[in-house]
Specification:
This is Flagellar protein FlgN. The protein has three helices and no strands. It has 102 residues and is an all-alpha fold.
């Protein structure tokens, strides 16, 4: 598999991951994420340099898709947090570092 093919496969996995996130399909999300990780492993094994302009464009597209997926996850997490706070009336305590005990 060429690096271009590997990047296209990663992009396909990211698109599947986004589709699963949008439809709240947990099984599809788990499958897409596992495929993405495997395909990134294949890509990482191809450590030949330099990358072509096409490969750079594909890598940038993969990064954009990954960032979009991250935003979806963060929005869902914030939504769940807000709902739990509303249901329980409990607000989480802000992080406060403690001193080490000697």
């Amino acid at each position: 598999m060429t690096r271009t093919d590997a990047l296209k496969a990663v992009i396909a996995s990211l698109q599947d991951e986004l589709a699963a996130l949008k439809s709240f399909d947990i099984e599809a999300l788990a499958t897409a994420t596992a495929e993405k990780e495997g395909r990134i492993g294949v890509l990482a094994a191809r450590n030949d340099n330099p990358i072509s302009a096409e490969e750079r464009a594909l890598a940038e597209e993969a990064m954009r898709l990954n960032e979009t997926a991250r935003v979806y996850v963060n929005l869902m997490s914030a939504n769940v947090k807000q709902r739990l706070e509303t249901l329980t009336g409990i607000k989480p305590v802000a992080y406060a570092p403690t001193r080490a005990v000697a």
